[in-house]
Amino acid sequence: MILPIVAYGDPVLRKVGVEIDKNYPNLAELIENMRETMLNAQGVGLAAPQIDKSIRLFIVNTTPFGEDEDLDEVERTFLANFDKVFINAKIIKEEGDEWAFTEGCLSIPDIREDVFRQSKITIEYLDENFEKHTEVIDGLAARVIQHEYDHIEGILFTDKISSLKKRLLKKKLENISKGKVNADYRMKFPTLKRK
């Protein structure tokens, strides 16, 4: 089932997600719904807060990058097959040179900005079968993971841009929170009464 994606301005996007265990209700169905929602919106990652669940769960599928001719063949092949579920993830280490890449977010449609992130991460996480993994990942896959990981920490990519750019985007961000945006996927906009 395709779920509505929570828009910028909703308080759930600012909450730190809570850990879950294998008894979390309907987890397999939730993961499948998240995958369907992400693919429908043409995203490469989706975190649970973006579908109104303040839990430490996100998915990443970098398959679309596998067709990017600007990348070398090794990275293209890796990205074409990178499709993972991350539960209770913890980034242990970020290292390498910071590099800029233009990021966007399904919760913040029509805004794309350069964000600087380190190139390599070490991450611990549980997969959908609650098997533990520790992996070192670099390049674009690491960047997508860092972006989604930020979501479960209550951080948005717009928090990582310069104060000047934030000021320039202020009106656009306000409009998104008011539902004044055209997205070609279902969205859920914040209401003033929500706590």
From TrEMBL:
Domain of life of the native organism: Bacteria
Enzyme Commission number: 3.5.1.88
Binding positions for Fe cation per the UniProt entry: C105, H147, H151
Cofactor(s) required for function per UniProt: Fe(2+)
The entry's keywords: Hydrolase, Iron, Metal-binding, Protein biosynthesis
GO molecular function term, any single one: peptide deformylase activity
UniProt cross-references to HAMAP family, sorted A to Z: Pep_deformylase (MF_00163)
Protein's name in the database: Peptide deformylase
Organism: Lutibacter maritimus
Protein's gene: def
